[in-house]
Design goal:
CATH class of the largest domain: Alpha Beta
Strand content: 15-25%
Structural class: alpha/beta
Shape: globular
């Protein structure tokens, strides 16, 4: 049985005096996704970059007043295990065009990999792995749903899927009303609620597939949007 994890997400935070250079290195050079950012929060700016999303991410911060930072130890490493050698070659090329080049690792264990210092001198290591861990996320389920729809020949128009989603969300609301006896008692979660949520999720995945929308990307974007609003205006509303 898989052991449950006690944390909802994990962040590694690091301070810098070169935020723009550092973000360009990791976002453009390495290829990480920007999942959130904030500006002038008690004098701090910050950018979060996903590994690949907010569940595991890096945060780089910079204060309006530059600080003296200790130099990194060459054995302090951030290691990326990558399945395709061509991907490593592309990363090395992009980062090299920025002026950052491979160096000899202090620890010989990493000699067969590629070690590159970032703008602050902290080192990343690109390792070719033969046993990549399968990525999890909505993409896995979207692919499964796409195959299911084709096998059972239940494809339909985007308009019908949208109406189906609205209908299923209505069924979720109905179960919540039943659970409170239409407001006459404290909410009780009915056994049928899980089924109705599953129906709604199925409809959402089908709709996203027809629209060719990557729900992992969509979720990262909306979380970044909400976190930015919370950091800047202390609520998630659009302000309209």
């Amino acid at each position: 049985m898989q052991r449950s994890w006690f944390a909802s997400h994990f962040r590694v935070a690091r301070h810098t005096n070169r935020l723009d250079d550092l973000v360009r290195f990791y976002e453009v050079g390495l290829g990480l996704s920007r999942v959130a950012e904030f500006h002038d929060h008690d004098g701090y700016d910050g950018v979060m970059l996903g590994l690949p999303d907010v569940r595991y991410h890096l945060e780089f911060t910079q204060h309006e007043e530059p600080e003296t930072l200790p130099p990194p130890n060459p054995d302090n490493l951030m290691v990326f295990y990558i399945a395709e050698q061509s991907t490593i070659d592309q990363i090395v090329k992009r980062i090299g065009e920025m002026g950052y080049h491979p160096v000899r690792p202090k620890n010989p264990y990493w000699a067969e990999s590629v070690t590159i210092p970032d703008p602050d001198g902290w080192r990343i290591v690109l390792v070719k792995t033969e046993n990549p861990i399968p990525a999890m996320g909505f993409a896995t389920y979207q692919d499964h749903i796409e195959k299911f729809v084709k096998v059972h020949d239940i494809d339909t128009s985007i308009e019908n899927r949208a109406l189906d989603l609205v209908s299923e969300v209505g069924e979720v609301a109905k179960e919540l009303l039943k659970g409170s006896a239409y407001g006459k008692r404290d909410q009780q979660i009915t056994p049928e609620l899980q089924e109705e949520l599953g129906d709604a999720l199925f409809s959402l995945l089908c709709l996203a597939n027809i629209a060719k929308i990557d729900l992992d990307v969509a979720l990262m974007q909306v979380l970044a949007k909400y976190e930015n609003r919370l950091n800047n205006q202390q609520d998630m509303s659009s302000g309209h």
